[in-house]
Every structure is written in C-alpha cells, then in structure tokens.
Amino acid sequence: MVFRMETNRDILISGASVAGPALAYWLSRYGFKPTVVERAPALRGGGYAVDFRGKVHLGVLSKMGVLDSIQAQQTRLSSITYVDQDGRPVSRMPAGIFAGDVEILRGDLGRILYDATSDGSEYVFGDSITGISQRPDGVHVTFSRGAPRVFGLVIGADGLHSNVRKLVFGEDGGPVRDLGYYVSIYTVPDSLVQERAGLLHSVPGRTAGVFSAGRQAIAQFYFSSTDAGYDHQDVEQQQKILVDAFTGVGWRVPDLLDAMREAPDFYFDSVSQVYLDRWSSGRVALIGDAACAAGPGGNGTGNAVVAAYVLAGELAATNGDYRTAFDRYERLMRPYIAKGQKQAKGGSQFLAPPTEKRIRQRDRFFRMVGYLPAKGIIRYLSTRTATGIDLPSY
Ligand SMILES: Cc1cc2nc3c(=O)[nH]c(=O)nc-3n(C[C@H](O)[C@H](O)[C@H](O)COP(=O)(O)OP(=O)(O)OC[C@H]3O[C@@H](n4cnc5c(N)ncnc54)[C@H](O)[C@@H]3O)c2cc1C
Known about the structure:
Number of helices: 13
CATH superfamily of the domain at 10-76 and 104-175 and 273-349: FAD/NAD(P)-binding domain
Radius of gyration: 21 Å
Oligomer: single chain
Bound molecules: flavin-adenine dinucleotide
C-alpha cells in the first residue's frame, strides 16, 4: 500500500541508537520526513552483544532488509566460560541458549541501521533538545546548538535517561526502577583475550569479563550497588566508581581496568527498568528504553525494533492522526513489553550473584543447562516472550 501523508509529516526523533534509526526507517518508507537528533558528536559505537530471537524479531528485520547484513556480522561466539581467579574454567554457558537466533555487537547493529536510513532521514549529531512546547500548529522545539524548529510530532528514542521523557513527563525520574546493578562495557586491546569465546569471573556482587568477537575484544563489568550515586554524563566519575568497585579483584581485572582510560567507547549505566502509565502526551511519544527499558535479558533491542515497526505503521495507517496511532501503538505493544520486563527481573541475579553460595549455585546451573532438555526449555521460554505478539501488516 502507498500512503500519502497529509498531516504531521515532519517528525523529530531524539536518539540515534537502535529505536531511533529503526523508527526513522519505517517513517521514511511511509512518506514521513524524519529528523533524528543525537547528542553524541557521531554515531556511538560500543556496547556488548545484543540479540534477536524468534520469528517476530527476525520478521521485522527481514522486512527492513537488514537481516542479511546482521547475520553477516553476527558474533558467532562459541560459549561463555566462567573462570576462577587463576583462570581455570568453572562452568560454561552455551552460546546457543542465550545468544538468541542472531547476536551482533550493539555498535555494529547501530551502524547497519544508520546506513539503512541515512538516505531517507535527516541526521543531526552533536545536538540535543532543550525545550518542547506543544501548540495547535505543531511542536515547537529548541536545541542546545541548532536553531528552533517546528515539527508535527516528537518521539523520544533517547534511552534509559530519556531527555524527552524528562522534558515532557516530568523531572522526578519516578518511572525508572533500578534493579540494583550497574554495567560497564568497553573495547580493550585484542592482546587481553586470545580466545574467540568469552570469559567471566565472579566474586560476590561483582562479575568481570572479556570476550573476543573476532574483530575486537570487549570488556564487561557488572556489580551490585543500591546507589552508586553517579552522574550519567560524567565519564570520569563513572570510571572512578568502576575502579573502586573492582579494586582487589584478581584474574585479568587489573589489566582490563588499566585499558579503560584508552577505550574509545566507554559505557556505564545502571541496570534499570522504566514504567510509565502512558507512553505519549499530546504530540510527543516515547519508544524503546525511553518508554519501557527492560534491562539485560528482557529482549530490549529486539522489542525496540518491533515497536518502531508498530508505531510507524499505526501513524501511516491513520494518516498521521497521532491520537489514534499512539493509542493503538501502546495497546498493542504494552503486553508484549511487559513479558520482557518480567523475564529480565529474574535474569539480573545471574549477572553478579551476591554471595559465594549464589555463585556456586549459578555455576551448578550452567553445568547442568548444557544438557537437554533444560537447554531446550530455556531457549523455548526466552523465545516465547519475544514471539508473544501478533503483528499487523501495515
Ligand atoms: C553506547 C551504548 C552501549 C550499550 N551497550 C549495551 C550493552 O552492552 N548491552 C545491552 O543490553 N544494552 C546496551 N545498551 C542499551 C541498548 O542499546 C538498549 O537497551 C536497546 O537497544 C534499546 O535501544 P534504544 O535505542 O531505545 O536506547 P539506547 O540504545 O540507550 O539509545 C539511546 C540513544 O539516545 C542518545 N541520547 C541520549 N540522550 C540524548 C539527548 N539528550 N539528545 C539526543 N540523543 C540522546 C544516546 O546517545 C543513544 O544514542 C547500550 C546503549 C548505548 C547507547
């Protein structure tokens, strides 16, 4: 079907990671004019592997024409091994269970989505929305660098600490619920890991690891803390928090921490979920982590791509009638997103078990899980949450 958009054609999207470019893709395909504003000066690389699982995720990627590129760049990790402080294997997490149907580095995925959309969308890097005023003729937006502009609609795809959410839904941060963990991820020199598979080492409340996906090595850290008290834009402070949290931990951790200062893509954040009563307010709506972050194990990346398909499809089907489109988008997506959020709540216990006993339990679990039928059941359960939606054809 070919749509001709009469109203609300100009749509501003804040955030160029996963949800933003995926939405821009569908909007431009339906005849809208998306503009994507990203705070970072260029496309942000970095991040760990993200995965897609089941026919819904793969179906949307295939319709976007990016599935082949994603498959061509998938990580193909053989397994993740937990090691003791001397590097001896303790247990093994088979990649086939947890890596979904296709796993790719977040930075590689971002690049593929950007390349698929840069022709049909305007990208503005190094800028950020400072003010949003909704008026009868559209949304009047001011920026920290660019000149003010008017858009038909504004969509916040700017992640866990969404700027649009703060500007439109209030400052209090009420909808963000921390799961009690922090995560840090960054690229390290290849010399720090020879194996293609990943390695992880846990002490109570802290897990550090490194893996090589063939082309680059990536360090990752998880630690439990009820409040690390960090400023999510102050990288120096975040690096200090990370070093303090892992001081005294053996294995390869001191070398991985030493490599941090040179990392081009240091990422640090709380492991949190977002719950909002409404994902839209007037002409402004939210998508991806900004609306409903689930945290690791919650299908966040795949679900963000699905949400982009639905939101753009509803706007096209209603010819830009945002009230109806936002209502339908939310009605369709909420139950699906809730499944991922519920799944992720339990998963965080595995990231950094709080006691030696819990670490041993986790290792026992992974030793057992490699054998059928446990393997099949876990794979079935995690795929079921990712496939639990009937998508309309737009
Ligand atoms: C650098 C990075 C690394 C990540 N690494 C991992 C990982 O290893 N594992 C994992 O599970 N998840 C990771 N994530 C989160 C993961 O990408 C998301 O959970 C998921 O893909 C949903 O994506 P999203 O597009 O909704 O949000 P996000 O991926 O969080 O993207 C939000 C985007 O908005 C931009 N932004 C923020 N504030 C503003 C502003 N004021 N104005 C304009 N733009 C703004 C950010 O720079 C970012 O590009 C990472 C995110 C980023 C940005």
